[in-house]
Amino acid sequence: MAYHSFLLEPISCHSWNKDRTQIALCPNNHDVHIYKKDGTKWTKIHELKEHNGQVTGIDWAPDSNSMPPSHLSRYRLGEVWKPTLVILRINRAARCVSWSPKENKFAVGSGSRLISICYFEQENDWWVCKHIKKPIRSTVLSLDWHPNNVLLAAGSCDFKCRVFSAYIKEVEEKPGPTVWGSKMPFGEVLFESGPSGVSGGAGEGAGGGWVHGVCFSHSGNRLAWTSHDSTVAIAEGGKTSTISSLSSETLPLLCVSFITENSLVAAGHDCYPVLFVYDGTKGSVTFGGKLDVPKQTSQRGISARERFQNLDRRATSSETTEQGLESLHKNSISQISVLEGGKSKCSTFCTTGMDGGMVTWDVKSLESALKDLKIV
Amino acid sequence: MSKNTVSNRFRTVDVDEYDENKFVDEEDGGENQLPDIVHVASLTPLCTGNLMEALQAVLKNPPINTKNQNVKDCAEGLVLKVLSAFKSSDVDKGVQSLDKNGVDLLMKYIYKGFETPSDNSSAVLLQWHEKALSAGGLGCIVRVLTARKTV
Prior knowledge:
heterodimer, A: mainly beta, 5% helix, globular, B: 58% helix, elongated, repeat (chain A), ARPC1 (chain A)
C-alpha cells in the first residue's frame, strides 16, 4: 500500500488515464491538476484552469483521452487538452460526471434534480444534451454506466437508487435485452430501490439515507449502492424485489466498487476501506473485513502521570494512546477507483480522500496480509 | 372601481402548497396497533419479573408509521418503564438478546428518551446506550440520525 500525499487540501475528485501513468485531480478549487508518475515520484505536468467554479467530478475517458470535469457552474469543459464548452442547461451545480463505456456519450448528475446525457452531434459539430428528469426528486450524487453503454445507475439525495435507460438513437443501435429489462426508451426507469429499500431486512429502518455511491458489477447484472444511513445494498437485476442490504457498524460509506463479481470494496467517513462479500444464492451481504490494518505498535506500560492525564482528558484511564487515526488515510475517503484488473478481477485499486492523499491498494498483498480475508 | 380590487381572498392562499417542486414525503399511513395491546403484552411479563420478554414485547410493532403523537408518547413511556426495570448487570444480556434491527430500534428509543429527561431516566438510558453502542457500533447511531420515520 503506497500512500502519497499530494496536497494539504482535500482531493474532491480524481481520475486515471488508460495506462495509469497519469492522474487528474482537483485540489478542492477551480483547477484540475494533472500529475505524471516518474518512478515513485509524481510531478505535475498540467494545470487546467478554465473552470470558474469548484470542480466536483472528473472522468478520464481511457481511449479517446478526453476528460470532462464537472463543476459548480452550469457549463462544463471537456478537454482534449483544449477546452470545449458543453452547455448543460441546468440551473444548479453539476455534481458528478461519467463517460459511457464506449465513450460516445457522458452523463452528468446535478443538483437541479436531473441527469444530463451529452453526446456529440456530427452535423452541428457540437455536444448536445438530453435530460432525464422524472422521477428524480433531489440532487443526483453518483452515476455508473452499465457495460452495455445504455443503462445508467444513479444514486440520489431522495434516498433512492435507480437504473435509467440513456439510449440515444442518434449515436447507437438498439440494445439487446438485459436482466434489468428489455424495453429501454430514453429516460425509462428500469429499477428503483423501494421505499423500504430492503426486503426482509430492517423493515422499519425505511430507506433512510442519501445514496452516496453506486456501482454496477462487471457483468452489469448486479448493482451495489451505499447510503448515508450506514447501509450497503445490492440488487440483482431481474429479480426486482430482491435487494439484500447490510446495516454496517461503521460511519456512512461514500464510495463503492466491485472488485470481483461477488466482492465489493467500499470506503467512507471511517477513513479505511472495507470489504463486503455478496452471496448470490442466499442473497445476503456480509462484512468481509477492514482492509487497513495498522501495524501493531509496541505496547509500552502506561505511567501514572499519563493515567491521570487520560482521566482528565478522556474520562478513562485506558491504555490506548490513540493520538490520531491509525489508518493510512487521515480523513474521509471520498472516491475509489479500480486501477488494474477491471471490476471482475481487480488487482489494484486507489482511494483519495479529504486529507489530500492518495493510496494505492494491492489486492494480492491485502489477501496475504489479512488472514481472514477471502475475496471470492 | 372594478370588482376585483374588492376581494382579497388571494392573500390567504398558501403558495408553497402549489409549488410543483415541493418534496412530499412518501406516506405509508395506516394506524398501528393500538398501544393498549402492546401495553398489556409488556406489562404482564413486567409484573412477573420476566424482563427479557417484556423487552421483546415492547420493541415489537413500534409506532413508526402512525402520525398520532399520543400513540408514540405512550409507546415511549412503556419502553422507558421496561428499560428502567432492568438491573444494571442485566442490561448487557438484554442487548445481546436483540437482533440487529432490535438494537437499531432500541437506540432510537434511547435517543427519544434523552429528549425528555426525567429524574433517573438519563442515567438508565446512558447505561443502555453504552451497551447498545458496543453491539451496534456507530452505524446504529447514524441510522437513528438519518431515519425519516421516527419512533
